[in-house]
Amino acid sequence: MESSSPESKLYTKCNAIDEQKVGLAHFTSLRVLGVGAYGKVYLVRKNGGNDDRQLYAMKVIRKDKATRDKTTIEHTRSERQVLEDIQKAPFLVSLHYAFQTDSRLYLVLGKWLLFLLFGVIQNMISYFLEEYASGGDLFTNLGKQGQFSQETVKVYIAELVLAIEHLHKMGIIYRDIKLENILLDSEGHILLTDFDLSKRFSSHPEHRAYTVCGTPEYIAPEIIRGGGYGYAVDWWSIGALTCELLTNTSPFPAEEENNSPSDILRRIDEMDPVLPSTLDETTRDFLLKMLNKDPEKRLSEHVKKHAFFYGIDWTDLKNKKQEAPFKPILHDGDDSQNFSEEFTNQPLLDSPAEVLHNANSLFRGYSYVAPQHLCGRLATKRLATFPVAYLNKPISDPPSAPETLFLGRLISSGSSGTCCTTIYNNQTYAVKIIPDTKYRPSEVDALISCAHDDHKSIAQYVATYRNGSDIWIVQEYVPGDEVAERITNREYNFDEVKCRAMFKQLIDAVKHIHEKRFIHGDLKLENIIFTDDETDQIKLVDFGAARQVYSMQSKHLLLLLSNIYYNIPHYIFSYTSNRSMWNDVPRYTIDYAPPEALQHAEYATYSASFDIWCLGAILYSMFMGHTPFRRERAERYVDAATLKQRILHGEIFTCADRWNEASSELRNLIGSCLEKDITKRATMQEILLHPWLKINARQAYFNLSRAFDIDEDFLGYENSKNKRARKRFKDKSRLYKLLLYYTQNSLRHFKIE
């Protein structure tokens, strides 16, 4: 009989200490993916750890339901054990975590952290966190397509055969093959889930199972008849599934209204399979051999040799080198459109569960952490938990967006998300829309600290909301063009006076950010926007790469912990004694990235000097019309590897007449900011005191006159002499327009000394 002591402890090869375990607080529910007899399946997001922001499916199983009888207890415990045993198997989920509370059990399943798997609950009640198979289940996809072609079915069934074959080799019988338990990942390959009815056989050659279980339409006749059964029941279920995929009907169809579970089981036990005449002989032969009522004569371990699988390269299929017949249409990694709306539209509610006094003893040893997370959890403390500190209370789970907040026109789109306008409370705002998997609470932390106090050169922060699986960051709407767009569309680049006016505003904004103990981390022309089309007023946007600058005290504590407790290599926290510096995940725009961001593939070195380099690249770009390590404006298509080598080992491009026209002060400031040696790079204080920023309008005119070979005494003319000078040069249209612009605009930005 299938029984064991309900108080016996589960066997696990990988035990976790308390500091490495996870709990409900590590997951945030996003939406319902499925509903079964005893609970729901939720799409959830992981909070923290080396799989931070990863999406999983949380399958809910309550202890008060799972402990109603010994059989259910055994199934619950067996599933937990089986899932640990099938790590990294083809087309099967693998276990990441397991834990429990007083009222519920939790399992976290995954497929090498690629996608989350969703399974419909049948006879269990536990929280399962599985790989999110964004393609949906075959039941939903079959309903959408009607029926699959024979070539499609052949690939799906072949993948299922490999999955079941692997289980049987491990001594595991599955016992619940059905459409709802077979999911498609984003590439269209199957994933088998829901191991609540699985059982590991003993090593005895006459192993048998006796429990009557499974889904009626797929149950083998020997289960119905009693007397015990073996692995052959899984091959029967594959035969029934194959018929359903090919014909969209059961091989034992209902007789009028007689379709109760008992009627279905009676037909399976007494009737021969009913197969449509449209099926070819090879397919009919395959189905009849799979649906042989005698398990000894049923096609089983030799199934792969049947002609039905002609053309299948089993090695390529196992390695997923064969293209899947159907690739689900996805809009994003957390897309759930391929799951039934019957479930995804349900509210995120969970029913209360009774707390049992002896439930924990029934599931002793249930907790589990996969080996990749045992070291990963410690690494997380090194690279995520400690370095990602917050000056404000982190908004890890933002509130839902107000119903009156509607998106307007698209402003821009990038690798991290999109930006749209919105009208809220009769005012226009900008909304940055980020997929949940890419959201970083540290961005909002920086916005609250740096963009919440009406700084004139920083777009102000308003609020953060959640809308489905997206995060909405609402900010001040800046209606003008990006500086990059203005430069691209201009025949001429910005002159020194215009560059100076804009650069002063920019360094004032960056100085403000640094004073708040943050760095921006992604300063570039695309993140600087004009407030309108008339003036040179600008605002800085996009704090997606912002980081907090740590105090020396906290850094010394990190070094102490890393050396004493975690045994972390020194390079992980390579702080210096005279400036705030730390390593973190690389985030940069290659054209503006400093050398310290490119020296290591795994991490980048950050400090306030990171922003200083970016300021130098921006100033160069505004004056020259292209970024420092591109050869000219026309060199737009340069691969990242080439730019990386130029930044690390080359020099900025100065072989141009435009560079020679620059004042010595401007060239010196750019060079000081773009110093590769971080210890020699200009500081913010040195920039603020730099002579180029002290040049007044009169001196700027003098520099311009030298560039255009104008009489040096021109700038000394007053009133009438000025008019004569202007008349003298009015035939030089470009110069005339420049000087006229200076007279009308530049004196507003600079004090004449």
UniProtKB/TrEMBL annotation:
Substrates-to-products reaction catalysed: L-threonyl-[protein] + ATP = O-phospho-L-threonyl-[protein] + ADP + H(+); L-seryl-[protein] + ATP = O-phospho-L-seryl-[protein] + ADP + H(+)
Protein kinase domain residues: 27-309, 405-693
Binding site for ATP: 63
EC id: 2.7.11.1
Domain AGC-kinase C-terminal: 310-378
One Pfam family in the UniProt entry: Pkinase_C
SMART domains referenced in this protein's UniProt entry, alphabetically: S_TK_X, S_TKc
Keyword Kinase: yes
Single GO term (MF): ATP binding
Cofactor: Mg(2+)
Keyword set, alphabetical order: ATP-binding, Kinase, Nucleotide-binding, Phosphoprotein, Repeat, Serine/threonine-protein kinase, Transferase
Protein name (record): non-specific serine/threonine protein kinase
